[in-house]
Amino acid sequence: MVNLDLEPLSLPGLELKRPIIIAGPCSAETEEQVLETARQVAAQGVKLFRAGIWKPRTRPGAFEGVGSIGLPWLKRVKEETGLFVGTEVATGHHVYEALKHGIDILWIGARTSANPFAVQEVADALQGVNIPVLVKNPVNPDLELWIGAIERVNRAGVKKIAAIHRGFSSIDKSEYRNHPQWQIPIELRRRVPNLPIITDPSHITGKRELLFDVMQEAMDLNFDGLIIESHMCPEKAWSDASQQCTPVQLKEMLDKLVIRHHNI
Ligand code: PEP
Ligand code: MN
Question: Alpha-carbon distance 38 to 77, whole Å?
């Protein structure tokens, strides 16, 4: 067992209870797209909003995020909708900028959590910061590396931590973009029992048609939440267009979900 010094996930005035739902576009593209998507997401009853500001692309040449100019857009989202906002950080500079703009939740992406030097840099910048930090599994199926990234963040004094299960890359073609390999987050839960696990069906499936089954599977496994990419106009998205759903489609799927409370 891995002993972490954790606190229950919470935000000012909001305790985060199962199922924790985080939704929003893969990337912040324009101020209008972020705000309108946020309004639609908030209208479905979701409380936590995601949008990538810095986008780590596997290959060069694709949209790499708007950068710091997008942070005031997320601040407006907070002010106008009351949503809590989260974004990905991959460097100490990202952490500094995000905190300066009042971002509520930070996450470490799958390409960063595979790199202990980068994780340590982010962790060092997080010293003494008491906001939720979510750690995605590394792109490769390496549970030790995932636990190591979580430990680095926790040793920096961050106590509100959750793991995000976003699936694992594989050379084999499958219907999924990233194979869920459910046994890995299940083993993570066994090793670190008090750590919440949030599943990311968007990056697992790569296709909006497949989202629901993965959402339901995560709930059947008693995982703690879901982070789902939702865009006001998915087919026009600048990144991950085929896996994003509209906020209305998201609500339809959430309404269909069967959420049992069981002790596994
Ligand atoms: C994302 O959340 O948009 C993202 C880049 O995800 P991942 O790090 O899981 O690939
Ligand atoms: Mn994405």
Answer: 6
Query: What is the span of the domain harbouring residue 152?
Result: 18-256
**Residue of 48, 55, 165, 166 best suited for mutating to test ligand 1, as the one with most atoms within 8 Å of CB:** 166
What CATH number does residue 152 fall under? 3.20.20.70
- Nearest ligand 1 atom, CA 52: 3
Assign residue 61 a region (left: φ > 0; alpha: ψ between -120 and 50; beta: otherwise). Answer: left
Q: Which two structure tokens, joined as six digits, stand for 256?
A: 């269909």
Ligand 1 binding pocket includes 149 (Cβ within 6 Å): no
Total domain count, the chain: 1
106-152 confidence digits (pLDDT tens): 999 999 999 999 999 999 999 999 999 999 999 999 999 999 999 99
Please give the ipTM for the structure prediction: 0.99
Q: Check if 23 has its Cβ closer than 6 Å to any atom of ligand 1.
A: no
Query: pLDDT-based confidence at 242, cuts 50/70/90?
Result: very high
Ligand 1 contact, 203 CB (< 6 A): yes
Q: Flag whether 3 is in a domain.
A: no
Does residue 262 belong to any structural domain of this protein? no
235 found inside a domain: yes
- Nearest alpha carbon, ligand 1 atom 10: 110
- The 10s digit of each residue's pLDDT in 187-208 is 999 999 999 999 999 999 999 9
Does 219 fall in a domain?
Answer: yes
* 194-232 burial code (b ≥16 CB/10 A, e <16): ebbbbbbbbbbbbebebbbebbbebbebbbbbbbbbbbb
